[in-house]
Each structure stands twice: as C-alpha cells, then as structure tokens.
Amino acid sequence: MEVVEQFTFLPSFTGYTFPAGRYLPVKRENGGVFYESPVGIKIRTLGGSYVVKGGIFRGNPNARNESKVSAYAYMPAGGLQMIPLHSMIGLDLNKKIRCAPPLSFK
C-alpha cells in the first residue's frame, strides 16, 4: 500500500497525519491486514502533537469487513486505537492512497 501524498485526516478534534511512502504489511488479524507507516503517524490534539506507531488497516477482501479501512495508532495511554477512514470535504482519499486491489473511499 502506498500513500502517494501526505494527508491529514481530521474526523474530530484529533487529527492524524499520514506521511507519503510505502506502508508495509506487518500483521494479519481481526479479518484484515495492518499496513505500517514508514515513520509513524503524527497525532494532533488540542494539547499538542506527537508521533506514534501506526498506519492503515484494510479489511480482508474475503471476509465480511472487506470495505473496512481504518487508521490505526498505538496511543501511549490507550493502546491500539482504530478510526474508520473516509473521504471528507477537501480530502479525497482515492487520490492519496494507492494499492492493489484498489480501494474505493466514499
């Protein structure tokens, strides 16, 4: 999986910045595959920003959650956090993320 251009996903008061680069598969579980960012993802909160281990989870095409695509981050105080990824006004993920088979974001 490749993030073609860095982007920030801002579903609430917390933002997640994904750097450009190849995201390598590091773990297969929960009906899908975890693709890890080459340098971590940046978390931006009202209290500041920091980099954590994380990336993109893609649901298994052979399972019921095939359309499930989420950001994941290993938070210092809360462990693994999963946030559903979707396009937003000003952020077309179909142009930012490339993989095979292709993803389709709404």
What does this structure look like?
- The chain is mainly beta.
- The protein has one helix and twelve strands.
- It has a five-stranded antiparallel β-sheet, with no helix packed on it. Strands 2-3-7-8 form a four-stranded antiparallel β-sheet, with no helix packed on it.
- The protein is globular.
- The model has no long low-confidence stretch (mean pLDDT 87).
Proportion of helical residues: under 10%
Mean pLDDT: 87
First-last Cα distance: 18 Å
Low-confidence parts lasting 5 or more residues at pLDDT below 50?
Answer: none
**What number of structural domains do the residues give?**
1
Please outline the major beta sheet. Answer: 5 strands, antiparallel
Q: How many E-type strands? A: 12
Give the DSSP E fraction (strand runs of 2 or more residues).
Answer: over 45%
Which class do the helix and strand fractions yield?
mainly beta
Globally, the shape reads: globular
Radius of gyration from the alpha-carbon trace, in angstroms: 13 Å
SSE ordering: EEEEEEEEEEEHE
Number of helices: 1
The order of strands across the largest sheet is: 5-6-9-10-11
Name some characteristics of this structure.
mainly beta; 12 strands; 106 residues; 4-stranded antiparallel sheet; 1 helix
Give a quick rundown of the structure.
By secondary structure, the chain is mostly beta strands.
